Amino acid sequence: MDDLKAKWLGAIGEAADEASLEDLRVQAVGKKGEISLKMRELGKMTPEERQVAGPALNALKDEINTALAAKKTALADAALDERLKTEWLDVTLPGRDRRTGTVHPVSQVWEEVTAIFADMGFAVAEGPQIETDWYNFDALNIPSHHPARAEMDTFYMHRAEGDDRPPHVLRTHTSPVQIRSMEAQGAPIRTISPGRVYRADYDQTHTPMFHQVEGLAIDRDISMANLKWVLEEFFSAYFGTSVKTRFRASHFPFTEPSAEVDIQCSWEGGTVKVGEGDDWLEVLGSGMVHPKVLSAAGVDPAEWQGFAFGMGIDRIAMLKYGIPDLRAFFDSDLRWLRHYGFPALQVPTIRGGV
Ligand code: DAH
């Protein structure tokens, strides 16, 4: 009995995995296992022998079953420990810093301008950046010989050899969108047209590509007074403080009368502050749309009239957000973009109650 016990308990103790443990179970206490066969031999014994051997065999069988169960649990625990070791994950490790992008000041201001004019009932109209010279110049009352054409530093598109139609241009201003939207919608109309424009010019305040927003309001009795109200309302909402404007008589081929508009500002320690002080800063050109321009766009000047204006988006972005150099806007320098850019979900800072 002691030999049997030593043999099976020893083997169970050494079993390396669940499969060999199962083999041992079959060999020891299975139907034809050694212990079961021994139990069958009890029948051949004398009653005295059986009285000793019976309980001893039963006890041994119990002991073996207990050892099998204990070993099975131990093997499963060891397997789990092993798995946990390989699947170990350090949840205290700090996450990797992932840089989020920023909204470019031009995009931000574009949104702000659109939101403010939308509140005043203006819809957004867009036009192509590559224009015909008719939309960019002629329809706006700038004929070929006009000095304004020369002053615009226009980029001309290439024409194929032998094609002597006038070349297309990269639009020099957003004013051609006035023509396109009046052609498309007729009057009355109230639109703004933000977009890219191009001129061959480069210094601290000029880049060959920049942004303008055009404004247009045509109805039966729109006047310069409406223009002044709309612009003052716009600047006050945009800069978040009430801003005075100054209208200076000027000249544009596409407006009559024409005015350049300055906004009130102060210069202190080399920085501009809008809405205070007694200096003035020019920010846009405007006027009453010239009858010839209305006619060119198919709107009858005997029946309709209204104002237009054109303003630099980059310029008012520089003013509001204290950005000194225009060229940096388009350098794509990540340090600049992180510094002057806006979080994606930042609500535009505009004054309510327009
Ligand atoms: N198109 C002019 C420019 O690019 C700006 C401008 C002036 C637009 C007067 C207008 C306007 O609509 O009425 O400098």
From TrEMBL:
Gene3D superfamilies: Bira Bifunctional Protein, Domain 2
Protein name from the UniProt record: Phenylalanine--tRNA ligase alpha subunit
Family of this protein: Belongs to the class-II aminoacyl-tRNA synthetase family. Phe-tRNA synthetase alpha subunit type 1 subfamily.
Keyword Magnesium: yes
HAMAP family membership: Phe_tRNA_synth_alpha1
Cofactor(s) the protein requires to work: Mg(2+)
UniProt source species: Pseudooceanicola atlanticus
Pfam family, any one: Phe_tRNA-synt_N
Alphabetical list of InterPro entries matching this protein: aa-tRNA-synth_II (IPR006195), aa-tRNA-synth_II/BPL/LPL (IPR045864), Phe-tRNA-synth_IIc_asu (IPR004529), Phe-tRNA_ligase_II_N (IPR004188), Phe_tRNA_ligase_alpha1_bac (IPR022911), Phenylalanyl-tRNA_Synthase (IPR002319), tRNA-bd_arm (IPR010978)
Residue numbers binding Mg(2+): 256
Coiled-coil ranges from the UniProt annotation: none
Reaction(s) catalysed by this chain's protein: tRNA(Phe) + L-phenylalanine + ATP = L-phenylalanyl-tRNA(Phe) + AMP + diphosphate + H(+)
Compartment(s) of residence: Cytoplasm
Root EC class: ligase
Record-listed E.C. numbers: 6.1.1.20
Any GO MF annotation of the entry: tRNA binding
Keywords of this entry: Aminoacyl-tRNA synthetase, ATP-binding, Cytoplasm, Ligase, Magnesium, Metal-binding, Nucleotide-binding, Protein biosynthesis
Quaternary assembly: Tetramer of two alpha and two beta subunits.
Keyword Cell membrane: no
Cofactor note: Binds 2 magnesium ions per tetramer.
Domain Aminoacyl-transfer RNA synthetases class-II family profile per the UniProt entry, residue ranges: 116-343
GO biological process: phenylalanyl-tRNA aminoacylation
A GO cellular component annotation in the UniProt record: cytoplasm
